[in-house]
Design a protein that fits this description.
Blueprint (H helix, E strand, L loop, with lengths): L2 H13 L4 E5 L4 E5 L18 E2 L43 E4 L4 E4 L15 E2 L4 E7 L2 E6 L4 E6 L5 E3 L4 E6 L2
Antiparallel strand pairs: 1-2, 2-3, 4-11, 5-7, 5-10, 6-9, 7-8, 9-11
């Protein structure tokens, strides 16, 4: 599915009375909530601002959407977040696995500035765990890990613009 096709689907959901739209194929899982979505106790998660993509991981192994509230861009690093960690001297990183961004956007370590980061250096993660949020076109997308292991390094600063396929974390799978 191309970016243009996704954009056209978003426009179509915005123009219709659809509350939710889900699409899945071998490469993409897409979940769009329209402006008439009434989930989470009757609260419209978008505040009537139109559709949002809730989860668009590249080939995500399991799908379990959680309602997201858009987080404003933080003005200072969130509590518990640390700058991207430098490589320790003499540390062999050849066996580490990179968690990469599946899209272009702005990287956020936590769901909002007043919340803790999804993961920190030293945390154990498993395949499918949410590790960050990427904001793209005012849509907040949870990024899930495709590997299990321990977070060894954070390669991106909070609220930093990122590119497609850019490494975000180094994970020790052993």
């Amino acid at each position: 599915m191309t970016l243009k096709e996704i954009q056209e689907l978003i426009k179509l959901v915005a123009k219709t009375e659809l509350s939710e739209f889900r699409y899945k194929d071998s490469e993409v899982k897409l979940h769009i909530r329209g402006k008439s979505y009434v989930g989470n106790g009757g609260n419209n998660n978008q505040g009537g601002n139109g559709p949002s993509i809730i989860n668009v991981p590249a080939a995500a192994p399991a799908y379990g959407p959680a309602p997201l509230s858009p987080a404003p861009a933080p003005t200072a690093p969130a509590a518990g977040s640390s700058p991207a960690t430098p490589a320790p001297a003499g540390d062999d990183e050849s066996h580490y696995v990179e968690v990469k961004s599946p899209m272009i956007g702005t990287f956020y370590r936590s769901p909002s500035p007043d919340k803790e980061a999804y993961v920190k250096v030293g945390d154990m993660i498993k395949k499918g765990d949410t590790v960050c949020i990427v904001e793209a076109m005012k849509l907040f997308n949870e990024i899930e890990s495709e590997v299990s292991g321990r977070i060894m390094r954070m390669l991106v600063e909070d609220a930093q613009p990122i590119e497609y396929d850019q490494p975000l974390y180094l994970v020790d799978p052993s």
